[in-house]
Amino acid sequence: MNRIMKNIPSSRINFNKSISKFDYRMLMNFNSEFSLSEESKVIKSYNFWNTHQYLFNTLDEKHVRQEDMFMYQQIREKILSESGQDINYVVNSLVFYLYSIKPNSIKKILWSCFGDVMVENLKHNLNPEDKICPICGKRFKPVVVNQICCSKECGTIDHRNKMREKKVSQGVTNVSAPMIGSIQDFIEIYG
């Protein structure tokens, strides 16, 4: 059954094929430990406010209004005060719960209430020394100081693209299949 589940794609989140699989753990603060159960105060409080958000005035969902921002601030404060835990513990618990135990749940309240903390965790967890390949979009650790691409294949494609751009900027109109009339034309184009 587990092997079959790996082959069934998630219908909830669609990513670009060049980007690797989403890792929810990058949204967590690794310096903070947490334990989780369905009876956790954090989970109980989140589930209550997730189902009772109608208690706040939200008539227009098309635009983020001041009332919506106030509602999410109030829900955030209520979850923090009812659980009695620090914000990193709460965010780690909710991220783990909503991305691993209940992956099909709607995460709007999570992101609206604690999105700033999760973005800071992302910034902290992603290594700023890593580079992103301009061709395939993968994150990699450069071996050489001025390495631009992650592999030789991507380097070849990048070099080819740069040569095309150079020829286009020099005024050659048909870069992919130039019409060559003589040896002199060939030398001018491919120099």
Strand order in the sheet with the most strands: 1-2
**What is the helix/strand order?**
HHHHHEEHH
Rg from Cα:
25 Å
Low-confidence segments, given as residue ranges, are none
> Biggest sheet, in brief?
2 strands, antiparallel
Structural class: mainly alpha
Got a strand count? 2
Report, as a whole number of angstroms, the end-to-end distance.
60 Å
In terms of DSSP E residues, the strand content is under 5%
Shape: elongated
**How confident overall, as mean pLDDT?**
77
* Count of runs of 4 or more consecutive helical residues: 7
Q: Could you estimate the helical fraction of the residues in percent? A: 40-55%
Number of domains: 2
Put the structure in a nutshell.
This protein is mainly alpha-helical. The protein is built from seven helices and two strands; from the N terminus they run αααααββαα. The chain has two domains: 2-125, no CATH class; 131-190, no CATH class.
Task: Give an overview in words.
This protein has 7 helices and 2 strands. It is mainly alpha-helical and 191 residues long. The chain folds into 2 domains: 2-125, no CATH class; 131-190, no CATH class. It has a two-stranded antiparallel sheet with strand order 1-2. Helix 4 (87-101) crosses helix 5. The longest helix has 18 residues, at 66-83. The mean pLDDT is 77.
Itemize the secondary structure elements and their pairings.
Elements: H1 2-7, H2 41-51, H3 66-83, H4 87-101, H5 108-125, E1 131-132, E2 139-140, H6 152-169, H7 183-190
Antiparallel strand pairs: 1-2
Helix pairs in contact: 2-3, 3-5, 4-5
